[in-house]
Amino acid sequence: EPSQNGPLFTELKFYMRAAKPDEIQKWTKSHKLKYLGVPRYWGSGLHERNGNSYRFMIMDRFGRDLQKMFEENAKQFSHKTVLQLGLRILEILEYVHEHEYVHGDIKAGNLLLSYKNPNQVYLVDYGLAYRYCPEGVHKVYKEDPKRCHDGTIEYTSIDAHKGVAPSRRGDLEILGYCLVHWLSGHLPWEDNLKDPNFVRDSKIRCRDNISILMDKCFPGKNKPDEIAKYMEKVKLLSYEEKPAYQHFREILLQGLKAIGQKDDGVLDFGLAENGDFQRNPVQKKRRKAAAAASEGTKAEKEDTGSPKRKKAAVSDAIASRAQKMTSPKPKKSTASRKRVQK
Predict the structure, then answer these.
(1) Measuring CA to CA, which residue among 65, 19, 70 is closest to residue 41?
(2) What is the pLDDT of residues 144-173, one digit of tens each?
(3) Which InterPro entries does the record match to this protein (predicted)?
(4) Is 215 a catalytic residue?
(5) Which of 65, 105, 150, 171 is the catalytic position?
């Protein structure tokens, strides 16, 4: 990207300080993790082309992002998958926070599957990462009207809505909204995202009374108690407080136990190797069979049993195909699509 790109520069600073392969390996081993979902930084530099300067960074290759998969799954993940994603992201956040940074923009679009192992998920895009505790000194709580609503509006923290610098509790709050959305497919403020003050006030109401959030997103009787407990725990955190990450993990583990599952590290997205989406083969066969049966029924309705009509239908089909082959192809539209900035 252009060397003047601010977010990329911020991202590079994070990777150079906190994402060196040896550092990640050391943490993974000392915390007895199978892997840590922080991309490894291999190098960076500047490249000159046509008089312009571009900054580049080298990191591992990844598969698909969870947002595309979320949409392909009718905007809902399984209960087990949501809780396991929460566990992996808590591990990532603990590492990031211990290296004096917060992420500030956790969402499905910033979570990528490993290219080789679809059961591994990585948190990327540190363009909004913030060094909340430089040299061990935590930033003070201060509301700044010029910085209000930073981040992705549907998930960003109440602190961010008020223009306060990101903190550890903000990251955990953002994760909580993600868990609710992934499990229920809904957030109470999702229809009013163009009004950031409405979103902020809605989040404040839900924070003050977690049952409001749970009732709106899970209207049935079977509400996920672990999500409510998680949000209650986040609510109690002070701005500068270090979260008890293990306690938050235990809450999600209890949720897995309550639904008869365990943290086996398997994310049931129906994925093949290299992070590509793979539909259930049984469902695929059923859809093909249903489509074939539908075509057969349609053909039977059109066929009156008369040989003459059959021949006429065949002739018509051949004539139609010949017409398509000889007809000039329509010109492609020259209209260009606008790229929407997030």
Answers:
(1) 19
(2) 988 899 999 999 999 999 999 999 999 999
(3) CK1_Ser-Thr_kinase (IPR050235), Kinase-like_dom_sf (IPR011009), Prot_kinase_dom (IPR000719), Ser/Thr_kinase_AS (IPR008271)
(4) no
(5) 105
